[in-house]
Amino acid sequence: MLTTLYKNRQAKRGASDYEKVLYSTNDIDLASRAALSLADANIDKEKFDEAKKFVLKIANANEKFFMNDPTKIDEFSLYICQQRYARRGC
Q1: Sign of the C-alpha dihedral computed for residues 80, 6, 15 and 29 taken in this order
Q2: Are 47 and 83 in contact (CB under 8 A)?
Q3: pLDDT at res. 5
Q4: What pLDDT score was predicted for residue 4?
Q5: Within 10 A of 72 (CB to CB), how many other CB atoms are there?
Q6: CB contact set of 31 (below 8 Å; sequence gap of 6+)
Q7: pLDDT tier, 13 (very low <50, low <70, confident <90, very high otherwise)
Q8: Is the pLDDT higher at 26 or at 47?
Q9: Percentage helix, strand, coil, to 5, in the chain?
Q10: Residue in 32, 49, 55, 41 with CA at minimum distance from that of residue 12
Q11: Within 10 A of 1 (CB to CB), how many other CB atoms are there?
């Protein structure tokens, strides 16, 4: 039980740190990586609408982010599919 509490506390702290970076940095690529990490965290919690908001932030503010490395969006899409449809497969 203590391990679970520790992991939850660490996850909240990590999300808080990513949000600070997202909203305080002037580096668009750093902000995009923070937003992608927040999207991943929300997918893990099955908060898909919240994850979508972060992905859209990236797409709207830094459209080249996914273009520079198309595997990011491919991996992210597969991850979403696996999380959402784990029982049926992708």
Answers
A1: negative
A2: no
A3: 41
A4: 46
A5: 16
A6: 21, 22, 25, 61, 62
A7: confident
A8: 26
A9: 80, 0, 20
A10: 41
A11: 5
